[in-house]
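Question (not urgent): is this output format expected?
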Amino acid sequence: MALLELENVDTYYGRVHALHGITLHIDEGEIVTLIGSNGAGKTTTLRTISGLTPAAKGQVRLRGKDITHVAPDEIVRLGIGHVPEGRRIFGRLTVRDNLFLGAFTRKDREGIRRDQEHVFKLFPRVKERLDQIGGTLSGGEQQMLAIGRGLMSRPRVLLLDEPSLGLAPILVDQIFDIIRDINQEGTTILLIEQNAAKALAVANRGYVLETGRIVKEGPTSTLLESPDVQKAYLGI
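Got this back:
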């Protein structure tokens, strides 16, 4: 049984038909990436999974349980964390408060403390900025905080939407190293990333989205060798 599945999912924004019959799965321990141009439906797919833009048709399942119309806060409790595009940290709150808000569904204080220490291990800069106001952090520091906040819910599946957007190349490499570390520690990851070469290098499998439809899928080695993928997304 897949850890996370979408089956024949249609999603709308008002009258706009954003996703057309999306079917995909993510097995436990994988990194799976969605690649596609702007407007292809990548962010909508993540929002559908996390309940922010619920599917109009089809099913979203977590370990076989239908979560298609479950409230977003309950989806977090069930084990899906979402790091949105643009970081979306609480700019007027401290780094410390942002992290604690990531654990809003939890009551195990000792577990929260341990997970906070784990975030500090992954992102030492976050620990250094603990009492700083979130909005005063650099872009790279905000991205580290956003990922750390996502981990504070202790997710089974972490949805990452454009984690390298707007970052300097040296920080992009650092973020991808940390994504690998998070995955190797046991968190399954669904990744959207503008840098398709980076995404395909880190992932086990991938799906290509075009205008709300999956047009290609397979192991990343296969997608990297596809002339269509090379031309459209890798600049080859």
